[in-house]
Each structure stands twice: as C-alpha cells, then as structure tokens.
C-alpha cells in the first residue's frame, strides 16, 4: 500500500508557515512525519489536522501547549460521545425486552 506524501519544506513554503512549527507538531505527538533520504514528508491523511493546527497557531495565536491541550480535550470528547452511543444502544436492547 502506497501512502501519498507531501514534502514538508514545500508545504511550508506554499502555506507560508515555518517548518519549525511542523516540527513542533511532531515533537508534541500531534502529527507523524515520515523521513525518506533525509527529507521530511507529511502524509496527506494528516493534512487536515495540520491545517487546523495552523489556523489555531497563526490566526488565533494559540501556543503549541494550548493546541496540545485542545487536541487532548477534543479526543476525550470523541471517546465520551462514542461511549454514550454504545451505552444508548445497550439500553435500547434492555428497553426492547420489557412489555
């Protein structure tokens, strides 16, 4: 299976963002970069995340620690919503058994 990759330096140049910002995102575990022959590549599957973090950082002036906290909270919300859905489905099973 081949993964589509974007060269980080080219992406940063075209998006007018600092390559160090993308490195910080990787450092904090918010994205994963691939390295091939000494060149950093961004999987296209992570492009939406990088663009979201870029808006937070450059447009909203949220620092990288804040972005990390927001990411953690949004992930936790998704987990809780999934748990609620699962519990509701289980509850429907029990409600269906009663006359």
Explain how this protein is built:
There is one protein chain. With 99 residues, the chain is mainly alpha-helical. It has one domain (5-94): Multidrug-efflux Transporter Regulator, Chain: A, Domain 2, CATH 1.10.1660. It is built from four helices and three strands. It has a three-stranded antiparallel sheet. Strand 2 and strand 3 form a beta hairpin. The model has no long low-confidence stretch (mean pLDDT 92).
Compact overview of the structure:
The protein has helices spanning 8-15, 19-27, 47-59, 64-97; strands at 5-7, 34-36, 39-43. The protein is mainly α. It has a three-stranded antiparallel β-sheet with strand order 1-3-2.
Topology:
Elements: E1 5-7, H1 8-15, H2 19-27, E2 34-36, E3 39-43, H3 47-59, H4 64-97
Antiparallel strand pairs: 1-3, 2-3
């Amino acid at each position: 299976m081949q993964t589509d990759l974007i060269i980080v330096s080219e992406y940063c140049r075209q998006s007018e963002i600092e390559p160090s910002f993308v490195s910080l995102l990787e450092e904090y575990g918010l994205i994963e970069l691939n390295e091939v022959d000494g060149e950093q590549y961004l999987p296209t599957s992570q492009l939406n995340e990088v663009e979201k973090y870029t808006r937070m950082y450059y447009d909203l002036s949220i620092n990288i620690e804040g972005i990390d906290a927001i990411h953690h909270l949004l992930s936790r919300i998704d987990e809780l919503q999934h748990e609620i859905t699962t519990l509701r489905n289980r509850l429907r099973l029990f409600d269906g058994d009663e006359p």
